[in-house]
């Protein structure tokens, strides 16, 4: 390919909508273009990179014994009605009607469709285990699409589904997918961590996420360098931190605390440390209200709390009006004493003594409060967000935290979908058994963003050979200089003949422009053919290095060949 021919509309500036490095670079390097919020088109370089990622995913899925098929993206409502998810997904699901006014959607995920396909097409239990997958466009009407391909409303996912006769079988299928995922992300050059994750609405017995650590990652990860424990904040187990509290149970006292609302203000007013206070937060859980309590210096983990409460919709903070109704007080004076809604209490609060809470009266707090004497919680458990420095739940070493980009998520689903759709098999003693499932997702287009985000430097993209749109670039500095042009073309032809996916910058442009563009689009290795061409000398340079090496044309071609073939 020739830069003079390639559609690669590089930009000097990017639209303000691009907030993170990968989004800016993919726009500036002419990889993608925005059609609408969360909806992108792939220009030639972007599409080449996407296809290379897809092919690595495909190779490893096939190697793991999974079989590829392709489902429709335009699906009849019936497909999701049997599992009840037609309603559950709410506004996130793109719904539409056909000319006969029948309900359809653009598929956001395909558990139901794969389960139905297996039910229709697998005839005997002897065919299990079977794992099927697709690489296909998904549609989810995200409330806040952002960061380019990182969180889109149309995106490419590899979704796989395993079908087994029993739990032992699922463990084997799951492990095969797990190992395939490790090979995929390693080949993509992504520095990933596997973390224990919440299964959320998917149900099942557990799930793991493959995370690329990055400050722009939307997920919080807690991890332990000592024992290797790693979990998404949503799942990370919190250990009760020992704090010393005043001995004995002192008499509870109502204290006037005019205009003291926040924990900070309370600390100032009472002169106690923040762990002497407990905060009481009200939530709407489906159609009822609950209160949740954590220590004053902690945060409530709404995913853990939701899983304990068991509500369908996500928890919503109660608004000020509701808080006033429930507590007969302004916001900031809420407490559990005298509250007639269920109170969920964090394990740490259960260990507090003689602590301070709102008095459910504007301008008043209670001090010397003791659990079970002054109020009885409806539930005590782990409902807080883990923090750096907390004890690791496995080995006690200090927990570290990071942000992560979720590029993969694998689930032991169990029978949620096979039950809902009646996917059973008759074993050889004639009994009906429900098929045991797993499901396995990779955000293929999101992997593009993660790769760009992880490798970028100040000059642009830095991509591994495995995913870069071209493997090598030949840069004749001055195409008007015959020896330079001729040698560059010769090297270009030789690299092509050796099967290297090479691009030549044959444009009649200044050297500076060529080098800037070469840095921007992230091609892993380049040969610069400049003044020394007359002596048959060219420069060999890796995108990850600043220095270059003078070589003969032949040495350069051989060095590129071995570099590319070793890093594919
Ligand atoms: C929806 C919408 C949003 C969704 C889902 C469905 C997340 C949904 C979870 C999964 C689970 C697995 C198969 C591959 C692995 C991941 N957001 N999830 O199901 F309709 Cl609008 O997608 N699916």
Descriptive account of the structure:
- By secondary structure, this protein is of the alpha+beta class.
- The protein folds into three domains: 14-188 and 413-452, 2-Layer Sandwich (BirA Bifunctional Protein, domain 2); 253-381, Alpha-Beta Complex (YbaK protein); 470-567, Rossmann fold (3-Layer(aba) Sandwich).
- The strands form seven sheets. Strands 3, 7, 8, 9, 10, 11, 12, 21 and 24 form a nine-stranded mixed β-sheet that branches. It has a five-stranded mixed β-sheet with strand order 16-14-15-17-20.
- The radius of gyration is 29 Å and the shape is globular.
- Bound molecules: ligand 9G3.
CATH level-4 homologous superfamily of the largest domain = Bira Bifunctional Protein, Domain 2
Rg on CA atoms, Å: 29 Å
Alpha carbon gap, first and last residue: 19 Å
Count the DSSP helices: 15
Count of extended strands: 29
The bound ligands are: ligand 9G3
Number of domain modules: 3
Give the C-level CATH assignment of the largest domain.
Alpha Beta
Question: Biggest β-sheet, characterized?
Answer: 9 strands, mixed
Fraction in beta strands:
25-35%
The second-level CATH architecture of the largest domain is 2-Layer Sandwich
Secondary structure class reads: alpha+beta
Briefly note the CATH topology name of the largest domain.
BirA Bifunctional Protein, domain 2
Quickly describe the structure.
The chain has 568 residues and is of the alpha+beta class. It folds into 3 domains: 14-188 and 413-452, BirA Bifunctional Protein, domain 2 (2-Layer Sandwich); 253-381, YbaK protein, CATH 3.90.960.10; 470-567, Rossmann fold (3-Layer(aba) Sandwich), CATH 3.40.50.800. Strand 25 (472-476), helix 13 and strand 26 (502-504) form a beta-alpha-beta unit.
């Amino acid at each position: 390919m020739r830069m003079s021919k390639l559609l690669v509309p590089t930009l000097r500036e990017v639209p303000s909508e691009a907030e993170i490095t990968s989004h800016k670079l993919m726009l500036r390097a002419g990889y993608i273009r925005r059609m609408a919020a969360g909806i992108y088109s792939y220009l030639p370089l972007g599409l080449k990179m996407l296809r290379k990622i897809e092919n690595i995913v495909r190779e490893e899925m096939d190697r793991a014994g999974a079989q590829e098929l392709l489902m429709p993206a335009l699906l009849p409502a019936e497909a999701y009605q049997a599992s009840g998810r037609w309603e559950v997904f709410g506004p996130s699901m793109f719904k539409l009607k056909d000319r006969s006014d029948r309900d359809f959607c653009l598929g956001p995920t395909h558990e139901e469709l794969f389960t139905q396909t297996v039910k229709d097409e697998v005839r005997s239990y002897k065919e299990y285990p079977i794992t099927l997958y697709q690489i296909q466009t998904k549609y989810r009407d995200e409330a806040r699409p952002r960061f380019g391909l990182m969180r889109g409303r149309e995106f490419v996912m590899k979704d796989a589904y395993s079908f087994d006769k029993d739990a032992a079988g699922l463990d084997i299928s799951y492990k095969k997918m797990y190992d395939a995922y490790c090979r995929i992300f390693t080949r993509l050059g992504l520095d990933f961590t596997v973390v224990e994750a919440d299964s959320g609405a998917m149900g099942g017995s557990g799930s793991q996420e493959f995370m690329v650590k990055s400050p722009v990652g939307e997920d919080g990860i807690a991890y332990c360098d000592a024992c290797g424990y790693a979990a998404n904040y949503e799942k990370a187990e919190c250990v009760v931190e020992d704090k010393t509290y005043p001995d004995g149970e002192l008499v509870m006292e109502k204290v006037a605390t005019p205009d003291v609302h926040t924990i900070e203000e309370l600390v100032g007013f009472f002169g106690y440390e923040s762990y002497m206070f407990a905060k009481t937060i009200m939530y709407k859980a489906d159609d009822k209200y609950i209160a949740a309590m954590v220590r004053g210096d902690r945060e409530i983990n709404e995913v853990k709390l939701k899983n304990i409460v068991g509500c369908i919709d996500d928890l919503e903070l109660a608004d000020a009006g509701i808080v006033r109704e429930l507590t007969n007080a302004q916001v900031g004076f809420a407490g559990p004493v005298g509250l007639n809604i269920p109170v969920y209490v964090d394990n740490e609060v259960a260990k507090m003594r003689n602590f301070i809470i709102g008095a459910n009266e504007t301008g008043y707090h209670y001090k010397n409060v003791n659990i079970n004497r002054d109020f009885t919680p409806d539930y005590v458990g782990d409902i807080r967000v883990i923090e750096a420095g907390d004890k690791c739940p496995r080995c006690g070493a200090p927990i570290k935290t990071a942000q992560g980009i979720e590029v993969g998520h694998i689930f032991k689903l169990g029978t949620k979908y096979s039950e809902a759709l009646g996917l059973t098999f008759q074993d050889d003693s004639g009994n009906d058994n429900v098929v045991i499932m797993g499901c396995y997702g990779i955000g293929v287009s999101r992997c593009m963003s993660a790769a760009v985000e992880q490798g970028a430097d100040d000059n642009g993209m830095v991509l591994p050979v495995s995913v870069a749109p071209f493997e090598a670039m030949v840069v004749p500095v001055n195409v008007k200089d015959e020896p330079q042009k001729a040698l560059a073309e010769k090297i270009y032809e030789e690299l092509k003949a050796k099967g290297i996916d090479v691009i030549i910058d044959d444009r009649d442009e200044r050297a500076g422009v060529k080098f800037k563009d070469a840095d921007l689009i992230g091609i892993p290795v380049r040969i610069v053919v400049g003044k020394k061409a007359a002596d048959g000398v060219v420069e060999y340079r890796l995108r990850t290095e600043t220095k270059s090496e003078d070589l003969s044309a032949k040495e350069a071609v051989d060095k590129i060949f071995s570099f590319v073939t070793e890093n594919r």
